[in-house]
Amino acid sequence: LLFLNLNSWVVADQAAEPSEPSKEATINYILERINDVNLRNSSMSIRTKSKLIKLNVSHVQSASISNCLLTIKETKKENEDVVLDKTMTVPIAKLNPSNIKTDPNRLILFTTNDGMDVKLDAKYRKDAKGKWTIDSRTIDAIGIKYSKGQGEKIARAFSHLIKLCGGQEDMF
Fold first, then answer.
1. Distance between CA 55 and CA 42 in Å, rounded?
2. Cα–Cα distance between 109 and 106 in angstroms, integer?
3. Chain centroid to CA 107: how far?
4. Are strands 132-139 and 141-145 parallel, antiparallel or unpaired?
5. What is the pLDDT of residues 53-91, one digit of tens each?
6. Of all residues in the chain, what percent are helix, strand and coil, respectively (each to 5)?
7. How many distinct helices (H) and strands (E) make up the chain?
């Protein structure tokens, strides 16, 4: 009798284990692959009429996910001067879990039903005097670079997270 009770307890315990990764595990998996991605880092020398200037370019993507809201920041610096400061905020539930494209180092996520649900705010330094132009708009797709892992796996993880956050497929 004790053996049967122990056996049934083990079976019940195995049935309680989730068959798919949790939201937290999925978010961690995604962020490990899309956060702190170096988009372009380089050093070069530029000759002006009077001197040689060393230019260090740092272009980095960072990401966070909180309450099913994805935030992607892209920052580009020339030496220590910020020349690009771009932020995209994406309500994950507005993304289509079955429409994710992959390139060798980039994912493209699309919103459902052609919605303009991604908010893009970008500031670009226009010239050396420090003038900035600001671009604020909504878009229906977002490109995200990833640094490690296979694009198809990251796309499946995003699809899973979108479903966990309440995202639905396009109607047609």
1. 8
2. 10
3. 8
4. unpaired
5. 888 999 999 999 999 999 999 999 989 888 999 999 999
6. 25, 50, 25
7. 3, 9
